[in-house]
Amino acid sequence: MTSPQTDDEALVILVAANSPVLRGLRDVLRDWVAFGLSRPFLWIDESDADVDLLADIVATHVTTHSAARVRLADFLADRHAVGLLRLVPVSVAGAESMTVSQRVAGQTYTGLNGIGAGQISPVHCVLARHGMGGWNPEPTWNGWHTVIVAPEDAWTPQLVATDLTYRHSDQLYTGHVAAGLAGLTGLWIGVGEAPFDKTPVGTLPRPVVARAYLRRLDASGVAAAVRRKLTDVSDGLPRPRHGHAVCEHLRKPDAAAVNVARAVIQKHRGLFATQRVQSQTGPQQLGTLAALRMFLSFVWSAIRRAPWTLVNNARSHTSAALSRRLQNAIFGPGDSQFELVTAGLTADGLPAGAADLARSAEELARRVHTVSAAAEQVVPDAAPFWRDVVSGALTLADGGERSADVPPVMVGGLPGVVPDAGYLAPSPDVAFVLPGQLAAVIGVDRVESHDIWAQDQVADRLGTAGTDLELARAGDAFDTWRRDVGRAYTSEIGRHLARELKTRTAAVADLLKALREVTAEVDNTAPSKEDQFQALRIVGVMVFGLVVIAAAVTSAVKYEWLSLQYTISFAVTLAILWTAWLLYALYQQEQRLFTLLTSRNTAGDRAAAAAGNVGFAVAELQVAAVLYQQYLAWTPVLGRFLLQPFGPVPEPVPPPRLVGPLPRAMGLGIAHPDPEQIAVVTHDLGSVVFDRGWLSSLWANFEADAPRRIGTAGLALRNNTELLYTDEAATATSPLRLWSSTVIADGVKGTAGEALWRDARSQLLRDGLDDLSAKLFGDVEVIGQSGPGGSRLTGTTFLTDLIAAIGEDRAQHFSTSLFEPGAVAYDPHKVGTSIVIGGPGVDTTKTEESTARWLPPAAREQADLDQFVVVVQLTEPVPAEQLRLLAPFASVSTAAEVNEQTSPDTLYPDLGI
Fold this sequence. Notes:
The protein is of the alpha/beta class. 45% of the residues lie in helices and 12% in strands. Strands 1, 2, 3, 4, 5, 6, 7, 10, 18, 19, 20, 21, 22 and 23 form a 14-stranded mixed beta sheet that branches.
């Protein structure tokens, strides 16, 4: 109920005369501080203040858990901000009167003022007790407000009061004056301004009589019940307000979820695009001269390279044979991991590296089929996609406008919302547990509700169950479970990502197969050495034939076998025919070689295109794998958040229950929730606080709390939670994976629902205390006394009757027992001012016709619906001679006249606090 005192709050310093009554008062106030009813304060015994220097004054700082002795000056110096100081000397008037020395009080005031401790409100309080006569001391001090605490006790001002006399117990009297002192000095928790804070010194030249009343209602149980009911989504998500209407429930929420998921995917279709290249090989057009030049170039090349070709052919045969024999000798005749290369040739006679691409493709296929692409691949930024995935789920839940491309689904002109969170994301808690036999076969014992890839694998395995009865039953249960979790919006996202992953895995495998085939085709279409040697043989035969013809002609001319004319004609004709026949044969060989080269170039272009496509496909597979990995992390986060978007409702702290009777003027109550009232109030409240888009602030708070929840791994997220959306979730220690695991295990924590509750609380308090009491505080248990109506009252009676009583005629006079009988005719006992300090539900903006002065509560935000009302009534200044403060023949003493001193070591006995 209580909270630590802040430096800028008013500090109450009580300077007490040496009286047993005041020692009892101190103990009562300390108990109330411990129970969270009063603020911490400083207590100074007059003997400790009767010193020359302020630095020597020792005080006791009474807090919730301790009562430490401190030096006053040092304590004030340690406060980071100096606010208002309420300096309150407390005297006792009666049979054993003890008044604080005016010199000591003045010296303390002067010392505090001298060190600039802050604004000082000096109030001298005199605690009176109705006695048996009167003697007129002069209790008024110049420069001080003097207040006489009236010894009368009543539930409200208009009821008959009990005059506390010496016949009443000291316990009852001490509790009464403690409550009056707390009301006058602003000690009650929640009070901001006290009655005399803004009253200038000197405006009250005479003492005033005061009485105070308190009502404090502990409504933590009611607040928790309202909050729990308001934030309970087990029966469905709330229908948000749209103008003066409410959003409609979607008639087909599963279909709407699919449509929104597809809209998100369509918006980011570029993320799923594929790229392929085509071979550009085609027929090349040549002119006649170009073709003739190409042919003559081929002939000349064949003639020029003939010697080298013969040498290389012999060398290649020798190297291949040597590699084959060494390969078999060293590594054996079978398959080996190693392949021997001699002079650049393998045992098969192929150039080294001809099969490298095929082998690399095999290794890449093996790795790709494990759905784990190379880390070096560059993945596009998927943060906008995941932002829209989250926004799509929130839009389905609250009908908010978040994206023009993914608008709310409309129903009859109104935004539609899903009736429950099961249509948005499956709960992480509803995994399917596989039977032992199937778990042993598959290697996993459970399938997560969001893992579509794993579900497909299990479904394929169950589809091949055959006649196994146990697996058949497991298959039926699995299908039912899968249909249930598969209706969710995120499941549609997951199905698309799983399809992409499966399709791209198959595409990589197909492209690798095509690459191996086209690589083999390149090798098969290469011109063989026999083809090259055949062309050389034709050229050799042509040259040899021409040489033979030339030799024959020379012999014929030399030996005159024929006439020269016939010989030359015959030789020319034969050479022409021989050359033409050989050129034709060479032309046919050139055609065969050109056909092979054309096929090889075409296959090479196709191989290059296939290799490029494999690269594209692997990169696309990497994108699909990362997206699916991110999906596995994001989906349970969304599922957990949408099942409990407000986080856990804090359990109410058990209210304090003081033992023993309390003063009648001090009313402590505990409000007990009424389920029917709670249901009505939350229904009406929900139509106000749940506006379209109400989930946005909750998600923002939930997301902002992620760095705190994952510890040191979240340091980089403190100023940029966008990194969660760019996290590829590649490892178990990535921030996204850590956050997801934490949310799955511990749920929604932090302050996710605080913003909504503050709004709801403001709405509840807006209509004032009367309406709030009638709606929620129907049953109030009164603590420490029976009250006028017994131990159970309504909230209206408990809280508002005190305020209503202020205007009653019978509430306008104090008891006459405190005043001289001869002075009563002049109405010195008439109430001059009524001051009301109300909690957050009390309306402090009353009309000017009201005789009460209304003061607002402390500015500190309250977390629940606890209420308090403090009423302080004051007379007009009264001449001292009209008051009866002392018993007959009593005298006024000061601390200097008292021989017995109280030791600081025995200031507070052990109270067990």
